[in-house]
Amino acid sequence: MSKICQAIRAVFFYIGLVSLVLLMSLSVCLVGFFPLRYRQLCLTYGNKLIMAWLRITCGVKVKVVGLENIPDQACVVLSNHQSTWETFFLQHLFVPASVILKRELLWIPFFGWGLYVMRAIAIKRSKPAGAIRQVLKQGKQRLSRGINVIIFPEGTRVRSQQVATFMTSGAALAKTAAVPILPVRHNAGQCWPAGSWLKTPGTITIVIGPTIATDTHNPRELTKIAEQWVAKAL
Asked: Going from the N-terminus, what domains does the chain have, and what CATH number goes with each?
């Protein structure tokens, strides 16, 4: 596909994306008083529409492998991080869910409002010690209420297909809350690359691994187990 055609399709996608984000943000006014679980069900439906619009405009499809591995109880989802795609898709896939993200995202008009209502855990990257304490405290509260916590343990988006070293905060949270870890691997960067607004037609494959029990290993060991699984999943 030519760059011109890709650009035209990407423009149409972003027009729809902005429209859907605005619509979802305005709907916050209607569902803001609902319990969190129902707020998330309503708002993440918008994420499903975004994925459908991405398929229609840019030819990006999604294949999910391992749905049977999602546990009935709340868990800590550890996923690799390649693009913006997974921040939309994973919230819908694992609803109800709270995502760990940088606090600056809450300042984005409309989009940040939705993140706030979804009860994302917004941390200050400039204060890592305080961020870890916040993840452990708020993450444990979410998990105790049956809400999954999604963490990108690489800490930032990785443009290559290699997996960067995982930080231990996600495993520490799972260990403290006595819940399993659910490892996830995807190749979203091939279709929605970081640092580029163009989208490449193709299929994003997301693989959900078997849960990792947290009762027999320490956080550092659990982190290594999850990192090794994610690194080999695709």
From this structure: 3-232 (3.40.1130)
CB-based contact 86:186 (threshold 8 Å): yes
pLDDT 10s digits, 195-223: 889 999 999 999 999 999 999 999 999 99
Cis status of the peptide bond prior to 180, with omega within 30 of 0: no
β-sheet bridge partners, residue 63: 205
SS3 state at 155: coil
DSSP strands (E only) in 53-155: 60-65, 76-79, 97-102, 121-123, 148-151
Ordered DSSP codes for 53-78: HHHHHH-EEEEEE-GGGS-SS--EEE
The beta-strand segments (E) located in 20-157 are: 60-65, 76-79, 97-102, 121-123, 148-151
Confidence tier at 161 by pLDDT (50, 70, 90): confident
Please say whether the beta carbons of 132 and 181 come within 8 A: no
How confident is the model over 33-62, as pLDDT tens digits? Answer: 777 777 788 778 888 999 999 999 999 999
